[in-house]
Amino acid sequence: MDDFRESDLGLEEDSPEAGEAHGDYVELVRSDMYDIDRVFDLAELFKIFGDSTRLRIMSALLNHELCVCDISEVLEMNQSAISHQLRVLRTAGLIKVRRCGKSAFYSLDDDHVKQIIEMGFDHINEKN
Q: CA of 107: how far to CAs of 2, 14, 126, in Å?
């Protein structure tokens, strides 16, 4: 998507009356927007990020691979609650699991997940 300013629209003095849409510009904006299905998918992704426990788990996994018992200790929560949230995060493709014998070690799925979290915190820190 390209960013543009209102001045880029090139609105003329013979623009439509107040309250009327600028047809050419409406079509331009529509063509630059993401497909509605992609928007719904992104909204679902942000819902996953909208839970503080899941964010705490992902924060713990930013730079460390951990098993459920380690995550449980770090977050001071019971293992069943952690396991439930790990299942949600795995289903969403945000974390991955590596099995080693009977143990399972969790990590963020890729750098995109880390970037989303870090960008969110950067944004919050700018506002404070």
A: 33, 58, 27
In total, how many domains does the chain have?
1
User: Which CATH number characterizes residue 108's domain?
Assistant: 1.10.10.10
Contact 21, 58 (CB under 8 A): no
Q: What residue type is assigned to position 74 of the chain?
A: V
CA-nearest of 106, 114, 60, 115 to 83 is: 106
pTM of the model: 0.78
What pLDDT sits at residue 18? 63
**pLDDT (tens digit, 9 = 90+) per residue, 70-125?**
999 999 999 999 999 999 999 999 999 999 999 999 999 999 999 999 999 999 99
C-alpha distances in Å from residue 92, one per residue of 10, 44, 62, 103: 42, 9, 17, 22
Residue 113: domain span: 49-127
How far is it, in rounded angstroms, from Cα 59 to Cα 97?
16
